[in-house]
Amino acid sequence: VQLQASGGGLVQAGGSLRLSCAASGRSFSNYAMGWFRQAPGKERELVAAINWSGYNTRYTDSVKGRFTISRDTAKNTVYLQMNSLKPEDTAVYYCAAAASDSYYLLDLEFPHWGQGTQVTVSS
Predict the structure, then answer these.
(1) Rg of the Cα trace of the chain?
(2) How many helices (H) and strands (E) does the chain have?
(3) What pLDDT is recorded for position 82?
(4) CA distances from 37 to 22, 26, 90, 109 (A)
(5) What is the three-class DSSP state of 35?
């Protein structure tokens, strides 16, 4: 599966952005999807993940209540709606796919990656 991320940009603290990740190739519905981010000097972290059906999601603690991951199977696209953005959310964001037909988002390995999209939040 090939992934194409978009939607990053510069926004003021408290603002919103929506990232999109369009998938092509193998059946999108066979994959769990994740959004990762990496800030300068920091390790890459999993921000949010969604299972193949869209009925199970998980978030890192720092974005809970602010970010929402969703997927549109008809459009082969996964989204990350980011609200109440903070300067510490500044990073390059990546989408990734893991072959999984499980409801649970456990022990996922993400071999498929899109290019990053820069999100910058100014204070």
Answers:
(1) 13
(2) 0, 11
(3) 98
(4) 17, 24, 9, 16
(5) strand
